[in-house]
Amino acid sequence: MLLINGKIYTMAGPVIDKGYVKIEGSKIAGTGKMDDLKNSLQGSEEDILDVKGAWVLPGLIEAHAHIGITEEKTGLIGDDCNEQTDPVTTALRAIDAVNPMDPAFHDAIQAGITSVMAGPGSANVVGGQFVFMKTQGRCIDDMIVKNPAAMKVAFGENPKTTYGDQNRCPSTRMGVAYMLRKELFKAVQYRERLKNDPHMERDFDLEPWLKVLDGEIPMKAHAHRADDILTAIRIAKEFHVDITIDHCTEGHFIAEEIAESGFPAIVGTDLTARSKIEVEYMSFKTAHILAEAGVKVAVTTDHPVALIQYLPLCAGLAVKYGLSVEEGLKALTIHPAEICRVDDRVGSLEKGKDADIAVFDGNPMEVFTKTLYTIINGKIVYKDSDWEN
Questions:
Q1: What's the CA angle centered on 188, arms 187 and 193, to 5 degrees?
Q2: What pLDDT, on a 0 to 100 scale, did the predictor assign at position 41?
Q3: What is d(CA 220, CA 94) in angstroms, rounded to the nearest whole number?
Q4: CA 231 to CA 261: how far, in whole Å?
Q5: Is the bond preceding 170 in cis, omega lying within 30 degrees of 0?
Q6: N or C: which end of the chain has fewer CB within 10 A?
């Protein structure tokens, strides 16, 4: 396929005002200016898609969601987000709960969202393993880009109230930190024993920590309040592991400290009510303040807390409150790709990367903008019915 006459936002270099994207199979073969292509257009055997000046971006990326795990329409029967029987469930895998038939996947595609990081919720101190996947498919095994992609951990109200209400640990923030430290301590000991005796009996619940301890995947830390964010950073530094700070609701109060930590933030969702105490200072200004301090920022809907199709609007509202347009677009594309450690596959329009492309009739962060095409792995999976090519 050859996509022509687009305003190309590669997210890896300057905007190409009148350019093309060349696709071979499921990969991007190149980008460039139309002037460099004109002589080779005549007699071309490729499928040519003329987007007539539309905005062409890498497929948008949702960096934190529960799509397919907390299904729409099905109520409790379709809610597999939280295993609320044990505060530490390291070995749980998102891939065993994702239902690709969840209608939210189509909503995501229609919004130009081509990939998503999805996994367990925040009821547990350790919730289990996230997966990074494409939004198109019927079989989760064929949709996977990276699995496991992160280990979910949670601080603050959610684990505290889930088990405090059962008169179990953790019922305090101290209890949450204690349980996470204890698990990481056990995991470090397990890794050392394994190094000394590679033939020892493997521990099913500790084995998933090895990728975290070896730096292959981060802990995905649910943290709203400033003190919880700092606790997450403190524990990560103690055990020399990486984290992403997910939600980061009060991050604007401690932007310099977060920047100093070097950890990125996945901000949101701010498109909901202040439904609990720890989100009382929720604001769309958070992304801007963090970015100004030097923190790498992505935005999230935390679907279904806010619906996944509103992801570009969340970025737009962050722009309204101070984030630059360029940073807003990065927060939807290359930044979540880098934060989720899949930027070798997605997040920018570069040769060799997956041909995941979203075409819009304007800036996707504006409310009236329509998605014209969504392309995943080189195939058109959505086309606006009113758009004439």
A1: 95
A2: 64
A3: 13
A4: 12
A5: yes
A6: C
**Hey, what are 77's tokens?**
């029967």
> HEC states along the chain?
CEEEEEEECCCCCCCEEEEEEEEECCEEEEEEEHHHCHHHHCCCCCCEEECCCCEEEECEEEEEECCCCECCCCHHHHECCCCCCCCECCCCEHHHCCCCCCCHHHHHHHCCEEEEEECCCCCCCEEEEEEEEECCCCCHHHHEEEEEEEEEEECCHHHHHHHHCCCCCCCCHHHHHHHHHHHHHHHHHHHHHHHHCCCCCCCCCCCCHHHHHCCCCCEEEEECCHHHHHHHHHHHHHCCCCEEEEECCCHHHCHHHHHHHCCCEEECCCCCCCCCHHHCCCCCHHHHHHHHHCCCEEECCCCCCCCHHHHHHHHHHHHHCCCCHHHHHHCCCHHHHHHCCCCCCCCCCCCCCECCEEEECCCCCCCCCCEEEEEECCEEEEECCCCCC
CA angle 309, 150, 130 (to 5 degrees): 50
How far is CA 352 from its chain centroid? 21
Tens of pLDDT, residues 279-308: 999 999 999 999 999 999 999 999 999 999
Residue 214 pLDDT class (50, 70, 90 cuts) = very high
pLDDT confidence tier of residue 77, bands split at 50, 70 and 90:
confident
Q: pTM for the whole thing?
A: 0.97
Torsion 92-78-168-242 (CA) sign: positive
Contact 55, 9 (CB under 8 A): yes
